[in-house]
Amino acid sequence: MKFHNPVLRGMYPDPSMCAANGKYYMVCSTFSYFPGVPLFESDDLINWKQIGHCLTRKSQLLLENSSITGGGIYAPTIRFNNGRFYMVVTNVSNIGNFYVWTDDIYGEWSDPIKVEQDGIDPSLFFDDDGKVYFISNGNDKTGRGYIQISQIDIETGKKLSENEPLWYGTGGRYIEAPHMYKFNGYYYLLNAEGGTEYGHMVNYARSKNLKGPFEPCPANPVLTNRNLGGYQLQGAGHGDIVQATDGTWWFCHLAFRQIDKYMPFHHLGRETCMEPVIWKDDWFYIGTPCCSLFDKQGYGEALLEVELPFEHKFEQQNFNYHKTFQNLTTKNDWNYLRNPHEENYEFGTDFLKVKATNKTIKNLEDSPSWVGIRQCAFEEEISCQVELSKSENVEKSKDSTAEAGLSLFMDENHHYDIFITKEGTDFYANSRICVGQAESLKEKLKLDSNKATFKILSNAYCYQLFLQTEKDMILLSQADTRYLSSEVAGGFTGVYLGFYAVDSNSSAVATFTNLSVIHKEK
C-alpha cells in the first residue's frame, strides 16, 4: 500500500494533529495571514479536508505591524481532552503564547487565554492525574536552547509553577516544536532541531518521570532528509504523533519540495507530510527505512512515495484541482494580509470585487486591499478577467492613479504582478517584477477599455505572465520562481496568488471574473 507526500500541498507548515471521536484533526501555521490556523479533518490520516480556521476574529488574532517574513502566528498545537478541543499557539507580533478552545469542532473558538511563558512552539500536555502542563522552547543565560515546562490552570491560563528546563536536545541548533506524550508508562518528549531548513530533524527522549531525566532515543534523529542531497523533498522535521483507530501509529511533519535536483530553492512553502510509525522495545521509529530496518541504528527518511509497513485503509489521493470563484469559499480558501477591512471585499458566486485604498502591501501598520489563495502545485494554469472602474468625476480622475491585478506574492519585497493601471482617463496593461530592493516595470500596453484578461503559466522553474487578447497571448513578463523562494526572500511562507487594488484617491473598484486555476498531475 502506497501513498504520496506531501498530503497537504502549498503553505501548510508546522502541522499538529489529534484524534477525537473516530476522526483526526490537524492545524498549521499562518504567520501574518488572516484568518489564522487552518483546521482540517480526516477519516484516514492520508486525505484531509479543511473545515475552517481556529482564529477568525480580530479579538483572537491581532496582526497590526506584522510583516509577512517574520510576524504573526507560529506553530500551533491541537489537543483533545475531556470532550474539549484546545489549540495553543504563539502570536509573535502581539499577545505571545495563548490558547483557544471549543466544544464544537465545526463552530467558533473562544477568545485567547494568555499564558505568561516565553518561547515559541507551545504545546499542552494533559497528565493522567488531571494536571495540565504548558511546554515551549526557551534559552538559558548563555543562549543555549532547551525545552521548558510549567503547570497551568487550564481554565484561566494562570501558571501554577515556575518554568523548569526539561531537555537540551541532542545538540542541534534551534531546538523547537516540543510535544509531550505518555505511552506505556513512559513520558516521551519530542522536538525538532537543526533549523527549519535543509538540516531539519526530529529527535525525542523518554523518561519514567514527567520532569526527567530524559534518555535520548539511540536512533536520533529519527527523521531527517539532511543527507538526501538532490532529493526533491527536503527540510523534514517539526511534527506530531497519533495512534489511529485501527491501532497503527502515524507522524505528521513539515517538509518542502525544492524545484530541481540541483536547484535548492523552494517557493511553495513548507508543506505537510505523513509517515508511518513502528514501535520496538518502547522506542518508536518514523518514516523510511527505519520502519523496515528499525533494528539498525540510523534515521528515518521522508519520501515522496511511501510504502506502508502495515495494513491501513485509505481513499485514493487526488491532487488535481480546478479552482474558480464558484468553488472557493471565504471560510476555507481566502486569506488577507493582516486584519482586513471587510467592507472592501464582495464575494459573489462568480466574481470578486475589491475596493481600492491608498494602502500598499508595504504599509505594515494596516491591511491593503489584497486577498489571496495559496499556490499548491508547481504547474498551474491561471486566467482571470480584471475590470478597473472608471471614475464618474472626469476632472478628479485626471490626477488619480489606480492599479488592480494579480500578484504572485511571497512577501512585501518579493512578488510578480500583472495588472491594469488607470492613468488619468486611459487604461494600460503592465507587469512588475519585484525582488528585494530591485523593482522593474515592463513596457505598458494601452488598452481599448478598462478590462483585461490575464493569464499566468507556471512550472517549477518560471512564471510567464500574459495579456490575453482576442487574437493573441502577449507575453508581458517571464521570471524565475527561485526569486520568490524562501532561500532568496527569507521567512517561512510560500507563494500566494493575490487579487489586489490600490488607488491614490481610494475610489476605484476592481472586479475580477472568470477565474480559473488548473493543476493536473502528470
Helix content: under 10%
Query: In percent terms, what proportion of residues is strand?
Result: over 45%
Contiguous runs where pLDDT drops below 50 for at least 5 residues = none
Write down how many β-strands occur, each being a DSSP E stretch of 2 or more residues.
40
- Specify the overall morphology: globular
Radius of gyration: 24 Å
Topology (elements, then pairings):
Elements: E1 2-4, E2 16-20, E3 23-27, E4 33-34, E5 36-42, E6 49-55, E7 73-81, E8 84-91, E9 96-102, E10 113-114, E11 123-126, E12 132-139, E13 145-152, E14 164-167, E15 176-183, E16 186-193, E17 201-207, E18 215-216, E19 223-224, E20 233-243, E21 249-257, E22 271-280, E23 283-286, E24 305-307, E25 321-323, E26 335-337, E27 345-347, E28 351-355, E29 370-374, E30 380-388, H1 394-397, E31 401-411, E32 414-423, E33 426-435, E34 438-441, E35 445-446, E36 451-458, E37 462-468, E38 473-480, H2 486-489, E39 496-503, E40 509-519
Antiparallel strand pairs: 1-24, 2-3, 3-5, 4-26, 5-6, 7-8, 8-9, 9-10, 11-12, 12-13, 13-14, 15-16, 16-17, 17-18, 17-19, 20-21, 21-22, 22-23, 25-40, 26-29, 27-28, 28-40, 29-39, 30-36, 30-40, 31-32, 31-39, 32-33, 33-34, 33-35, 36-37, 37-38
